[in-house]
């Protein structure tokens, strides 16, 4: 087996959205980057495919070119719980639905244009965080090489074997009944909505995202035991009737358990980014936006030559999204409270809009204080 040695200023492991965004941000700061992924592009993944407005504007600021054909504008969020409907619009700019394959192509295009070196079909075998070495293997001919890097970026996704091999996997695991899973499928049907619609049942939520003029993506999230996608959709009569005559046009693809925690996002010369850095749940649909914010902070720290800057910035990037996610999970686990909350939001749309503005980083969390009594009143009525 051939074994060669090379050097890289930055080696990024994983060319998903987080790894590619980090490579783009690093190149924008003039750093030399090599990115590897064990798969071949374009890479798909189970995802709701909704981009929050701040995620979309991060893509624009990275110079990622997305045409009108790639994006389906999204005006806001709509919750559907039986006959109760609550909806709110994003403040300021719109979000978008985008097929992961198109997003991947656009990110790859921008990274290449900026001069990042992208190696496909190459997997990480092991990483030595303190020495700054990675052992890689080409998937097709199994040739091995050792790369010495000043910084190593771990962007290998939710299950991140690298996080575990660096000793950064948190031992805390949710009990089986609290484990959550996600799956998605696409349907050939003209979108009937310009919102991300979230349909709630007592054991699942389904996210409908328009992703093309004749296509919607449906992502289902649920907790506890394994369940069939179709059964979960059938338990949502409003959604099931919409999809009844629509043709399924993508393979069912799922992932889980979702909750993962890293003990630290920096170790030696390695930094974790995206889902590899820790993930609570997909219930708020903002993993991509959060990953793009992290990518900017990580590239900035590498440009300054010190990963401690990233370790310091990281908590402030994830604090609010994680708090919102935990709040939503609280509702998800208590159907009576969820029903009350959605009913309250349907009666107080301005309060829902304020929540969404906080969620989109448009307003501070403190701006919820003046509207809290109104929400409480509707909750108690
Ligand atoms: C059901 C569901 C719905 C979601 N809905 C939304 C949504 O609507 N909006 C949103 O913003 N977010 C959503 N998310 C979250 C979003 O999908 C993730 O946050 C995002 O994909 C994270 O990107 P990533 O680059 O960190 O990981 P990934 O996209 O998983 O990329 C990791 C990459 O690493 C590569 N890799 C792994 N191991 C190795 C190795 N050893 N060597 C080389 N390469 C390797 C993989 O091939 C892969 O390409 C959802 C998630 C789920 C599960």
Please characterize this protein's 3D structure.
By secondary structure, the chain is of the alpha+beta class. It has 3 domains: 215 residues, FAD/NAD(P)-binding domain, CATH 3.50.50; 80 residues, Alpha-Beta Plaits (2-Layer Sandwich), CATH 3.30.70; 50 residues, no CATH class. Helices cover 34% and strands 29% of the residues. The protein contains 11 helices and 21 strands. Strands 1, 2, 8, 9, 10, 11, 19 and 20 form an 8-stranded mixed β-sheet that branches. Strands 5, 6, 12, 13, 14, 15, 16 and 17 form an 8-stranded mixed β-sheet that branches. A 3-stranded antiparallel β-sheet has the order 3-7-4. Strand 10 and strand 11 form a beta hairpin. Helix 8 packs across helix 9. The longest helix has 26 residues. The protein is globular and about 65 Å long. The site of flavin-adenine dinucleotide (FAD) has 40 residues, from helix 1, strand 2, strand 9, strand 12 and strand 15.
């Amino acid at each position: 087996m051939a074994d060669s040695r090379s050097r890289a200023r930055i080696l990024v492991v994983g060319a998903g959205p987080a790894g590619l965004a980090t490579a783009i941000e690093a190149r924008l700061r003039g750093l030399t980057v090599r990115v590897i992924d064990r798969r071949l592009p374009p890479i798909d993944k189970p995802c709701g495919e909704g981009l929050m407005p701040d995620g979309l504007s991060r893509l624009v600021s990275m110079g990622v070119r997305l045409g009108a054909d790639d994006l389906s504008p999204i005006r806001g969020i709509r919750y559907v719980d039986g006959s109760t409907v609550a909806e709110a619009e994003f403040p300021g700019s719109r979000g978008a639905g985008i097929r992961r394959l198109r997003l991947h192509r656009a990110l790859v295009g921008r990274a290449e244009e900026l001069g990042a070196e992208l190696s496909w079909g190459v997997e990480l075998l092991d990483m030595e965080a303190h020495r700054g070495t990675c052992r890689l293997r080409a998937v097709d001919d199994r040739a091995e090489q050792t790369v010495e890097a000043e910084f190593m970026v771990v962007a290998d996704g939710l299950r991140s074997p690298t996080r575990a091999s660096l000793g950064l996997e948190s031992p805390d695991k949710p009990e089986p009944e609290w484990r959550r899973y996600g799956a998605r499928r696409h349907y050939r049907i003209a979108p009937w909505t310009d919102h991300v619609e979230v349909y709630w049942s007592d054991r699942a939520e389904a996210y409908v995202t328009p992703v093309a003029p004749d296509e919607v993506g449906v992502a289902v999230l649920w907790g506890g035991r394994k369940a069939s996608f179709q059964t979960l959709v059938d338990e949502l009569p409003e959604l099931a009737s919409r999809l009844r005559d629509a043709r399924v046009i993508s393979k069912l693809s799922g992932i889980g358990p979702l909750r993962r925690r890293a003990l630290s996002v920096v170790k030696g010369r390695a930094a974790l980014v995206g889902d590899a850095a820790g993930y609570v749940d997909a219930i708020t649909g903002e993993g991509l936006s959060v990953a793009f914010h992290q990518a900017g902070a990580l590239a900035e720290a590498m440009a300054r030559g010190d990963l401690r800057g990233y370790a310091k910035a990281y908590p402030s990037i994830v604090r609010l999204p994680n708090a919102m996610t935990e709040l939503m999970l609280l509702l998800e686990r208590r159907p009576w409270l969820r029903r009350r909350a959605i009913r309250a939001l349907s009666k107080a749309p301005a309060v829902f809009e304020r929540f969404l503005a906080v969620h989109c980083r448009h307003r501070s969390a403190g701006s919820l204080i003046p509207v809290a009594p109104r929400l409480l009143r509707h909750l108690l009525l």
